[in-house]
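so my prof wants the structure for this chain in the tokens format not the other one, which i didnt know existed until like an hour ago. anyway here's the sequence
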Amino acid sequence: MKKIIIAIEDDFRRKLYKEQFTKNDFQVIEAKSGEEVIDLSREESPSLIFLDTDLNGFTGLDTLEDIKKDPEICQIPVVVYSPIKRSNDWERAMDLEAKDFLTGTGTSPQDAAYKIKAILGDQKMSYILPVSSDLESFKQLADHLGYKDMKCKSCGYSLTSLQLLSDISKGRNYFTVSLICPGCIKKGEE
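here's what i got, hopefully its the right format
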């Protein structure tokens, strides 16, 4: 079982994330302040730190900066969590080499658990992009991949979405892309 430190100041949110991470087979160690995160990281050697931007003492981003300066714990992957989306926090977290930046408004505790598993190499992340979300970009990508007129090469069915599958081993922003054909899926179900 992989050990993670979860540092969320708010008791209710910390409990929600702890419960979900525990359900996903993580041993969870709780921290409420930046100082506690650093001390526990040295003592426990966690596989990952889940770090809130809003902490007692120094902010989560100040804590991340201290983690990255400490040779004993700088190699521990850190996922930064912010209850509110703030672009300057995202930029600073990425500059400090956070593995990911999640917002409370856009990420459920289960989504966070999946992303942590992907970062730790236990699971690949998969994102589905429907055609309707950006038709022109989808057409360009389908054409680039050799799917003329957005038709499946196997059955000729109209393609409706593409799947982005993360490959953390190649870098934080690397995805393989595959097109999803509802015609081939239906054939496979028969």
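also thought this was worth mentioning. The chain has two domains: 2-119, 126-189.
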